[in-house]
C-alpha cells in the first residue's frame, strides 16, 4: 500500500489529486474542435440513432446516481430533450415502464454493483436500449450493456468515489454535447462547451490548489454535528453529493436541500449551530442564491459559500473559491471543492477516510 500511495496519506487524497489527469484521459481523442462535438464511438449509435433518442434516463447508486442527475441536467440544457436520473436500486422494484425511444444509461465505477446490474437486466428483458458508463473494463455492467462509454479514471481504491465520479459527469457532458449537436445546439455553443471541457483539468488544478483554505474552513466547523448543503438546479446534485461525502467519511449528519425548499420546512432548523454550505455559481441564478444566503444569515445561521462569483461583503462567513468556467460545467469543479471539505473534516475528526465504517467500495449484494 505504501508504494501505491506514492507519498499520499491515503487513497482518497491521492485520487482527488489525480483528477486533472483522469479528466485528460476521459477527454482524450473524444473532442472534435472542427465540428464542435464529441466522439463516443463505444456508444455504437450513429447520427440517426442519436436523433431518434427522445428521452434519457440515468441509473446509478450513490455518487453514480448524483453524477447521473448532473448528466440529466446537462442533457436537458444542451440537447433540449427530457432527461432524469433515478437510483438504480429502486428501478426494478417498481415495474418500470420501459420506453423504446429512451436511452438508458447505467452508471457504475466498479461495474459490479448488484442493484445497477439488476436494473440493466430488467431493461434488457423489456427490450430497453441501455448503454454503460463504467470505469472497470470487463466488469459485469460493462459486459451486460455491451456498449457505452468507459470512464478511464484509473483504479479507484477509496470507498468514497472522487475521480471516477468526476469522469462520469465529464462523460455525460460529452454525451449531452453529442446529443445536442445532432439537434439544435449551434456550432458556437458546441465550441464553447468543447473549450470548457478542455479547460477543466487546469480549473481542477486551481480548485485543488485551494487546499489550505478549505482545510481552515473544515477546522472552523469541526465541532458541527449537523450541516445543510443547499443548491439549485445545476447546484442541487452538487449539494446532494457534498452532503453524501460528508456523511460517509466524517459521520457528521448532513442534509441536502434545493435552496428554494428551505422556506418550506428546513428553515426552522437554522440557528448558530447549523452551518449551511451554499453552492453559488456565477450564473443566471446568482441573485436567487444571494437571497438564500441572506435568509440563512437573518436567522443566525453560519454560511459557507462555495462560489466563483464576487459576493457582497458580509453575506458569507467563509468562502471556498472555485474558478470560473462554462456554467454548464460548474458542477464538476464545485463537486471537487466539496470533496475537499468533506475530506478535511473527516481527517480533522480522525476518521479512516478510505474505509468508512459500514460501507463497501462496491455493493454486490442486495
Ligand atoms: C457504494 C460506494 C459508493 C458508490 C456506490 C456505487 O455504495 O460506497 O461510493 O458511489 O457504491 O458504486 P459503483 O461502483 O456502482 O459506482
Automatic annotation (TrEMBL):
Presence of the UniProt keyword Repeat in the record: yes
Assigned EC number: 2.6.1.16
Catalysed reaction, written as an equation: D-fructose 6-phosphate + L-glutamine = D-glucosamine 6-phosphate + L-glutamate
Keywords: Aminotransferase, Cytoplasm, Glutamine amidotransferase, Repeat, Transferase
Residues in SIS domain copies: 46-185, 217-356
One record GO biological process: carbohydrate metabolic process
GO molecular function, one term: glutamine-fructose-6-phosphate transaminase (isomerizing) activity
Cellular component GO terms held in the UniProt record: cytosol
Record's subcellular location: Cytoplasm
Highest taxon of source: Bacteria
Active-site residues, as the UniProt record annotates them: 361
Subunit architecture: Homodimer.
Physiological role: Catalyzes the first step in hexosamine metabolism, converting fructose-6P into glucosamine-6P using glutamine as a nitrogen source.
Protein name stated in the entry: Glutamine--fructose-6-phosphate aminotransferase [isomerizing]
The species this protein was found in: Actinokineospora alba
Lineage: Bacteria, Bacillati, Actinomycetota, Actinomycetes, Pseudonocardiales
Coverage span on the entire protein: 243 to 608 of 608
Amino acid at each position: 500500500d505504501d508504494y501505491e500511495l506514492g507519498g499520499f496519506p491515503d487513497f482518497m487524497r491521492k485520487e482527488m489529486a489525480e483528477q486533472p489527469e483522469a479528466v485528460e484521459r476521459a477527454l482524450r481523442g473524444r473532442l472534435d474542435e472542427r465540428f464542435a462535438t464529441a466522439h463516443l464511438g463505444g456508444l455504437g449509435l450513429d447520427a440517426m440513432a442519436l436523433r431518434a433518442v427522445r428521452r434519457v434516463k440515468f441509473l446509478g447508486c450513490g455518487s453514480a446516481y448524483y453524477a447521473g442527475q448532473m448528466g440529466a441536467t446537462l442533457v436537458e440544457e444542451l440537447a433540449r430533450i427530457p432527461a432524469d436520473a433515478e437510483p438504480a436500486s429502486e428501478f426494478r422494484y417498481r415495474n418500470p415502464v420501459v420506453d423504446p425511444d429512451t436511452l438508458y444509461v447505467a452508471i457504475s465505477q466498479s461495474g459490479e454493483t448488484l442493484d445497477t446490474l439488476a436494473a440493466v437486466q430488467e431493461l434488457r428483458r423489456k427490450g430497453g436500449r441501455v448503454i454503460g458508463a463504467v470505469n472497470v473494463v470487463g466488469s459485469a455492467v460493462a459486459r451486460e450493456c455491451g456498449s457505452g462509454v468507459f470512464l478511464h479514471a484509473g483504479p479507484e481504491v477509496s470507498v468514497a468515489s472522487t475521480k471516477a465520479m468526476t469522469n462520469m459527469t465529464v462523460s455525460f457532458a460529452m454525451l449531452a454535447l453529442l446529443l445536442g449537436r445532432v439537434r439544435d445546439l449551434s456550432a458556437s455553443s458546441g465550441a464553447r462547451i468543447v473549450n470548457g471541457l478542455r479547460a477543466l483539468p487546469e480549473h481542477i488544478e486551481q480548485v485543488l490548489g485551494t487546499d489550505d483554505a478549505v482545510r481552515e474552513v473544515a477546522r472552523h466547523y469541526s465541532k458541527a454535528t449537523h450541516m445543510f448543503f443547499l443548491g439549485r438546479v445545476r447546484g442541487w446534485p452538487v449539494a446532494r453529493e457534498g452532503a453524501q461525502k460528508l456523511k460517509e467519511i466524517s459521520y457528521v449528519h448532513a442534509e441536502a436541500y434545493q435552496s428554494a425548499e428551505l422556506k418550506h420546512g428546513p428553515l426552522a432548523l437554522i440557528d448558530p449551530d447549523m452551518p449551511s454550505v451554499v453552492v453559488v455559481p456565477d450564473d443566471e441564478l446568482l441573485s436567487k442564491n444571494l437571497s438564500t444566503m441572506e435568509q440563512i444569515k437573518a436567522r443566525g445561521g453560519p454560511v459557507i459559500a462555495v462560489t466563483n462569483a464576487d459576493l457582497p461583503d458580509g453575506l458569507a462567513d467563509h468562502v471556498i473559491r472555485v474558478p470560473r468556467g462554462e456554467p454548464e460545467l460548474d458542477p464538476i469543479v464545485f463537486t471537487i471543492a466539496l470533496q475537499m471539505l468533506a475530506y478535511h473534516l473527516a481527517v480533522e475528526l480522525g476518521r479512516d477516510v478510505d474505509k468508512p465504517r459500514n460501507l463497501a467500495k462496491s455493493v454486490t449484494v442486495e
